[in-house]
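Quick question, first post here. What does this chain look like in 3D?
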Amino acid sequence: MKKAFFLLTAIFSLAALGAFAESLPKGYGGVELGMSLDSAKQALKSKSDFGYNGDRDVSLLPGDARVLIETDSRNTQRHGFLTQCWFQFYQENLYSIILNLNPERVDHYSVYTALVKKYGEPDDFSPERSVWKNDSVTMSLERPLTLKYTDNKTIEDLSQKSLVQKNGWETTRQMFLEEL
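> Answer (accepted):
Ran it through. Tokens below.
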């Protein structure tokens, strides 16, 4: 009887730990996935850690309605936690945030430990990266020290649009490999 009680208590405790984990963030420093280009620019301006210099940091990417903001705070925020950051937009909406963290100010293990404490164990783990995922957001911590946030729906839409027919050489190669 005592063993059953202890086992049930342990199971409920573990379940409660998972239930109290916070939902995944949509970004960092007031910049969140789904923001419009103009809203993101305003948020970047309001937090000097990003090193945003205005429209000169904005580029148009090949393809329909794709914009990239690239910031670099290595020279302006020497003691900050960010170095370079990239913000990708599709149809005026932010769908990808990539933050390179300053290895002189923070280490991979500390960031990983903080994320596990706040969001629980990662859904996918390898030596190269740890990934937390829910229906709308994927957050990954990658080596050496990069934190990424992506909008799952936009990534799925873009990957479906990028499906290109294989050329003749690729088709022939595939047929050859299948015959082996």
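The chain is about 35% helix and 30% strand.
The radius of gyration is 21 Å.
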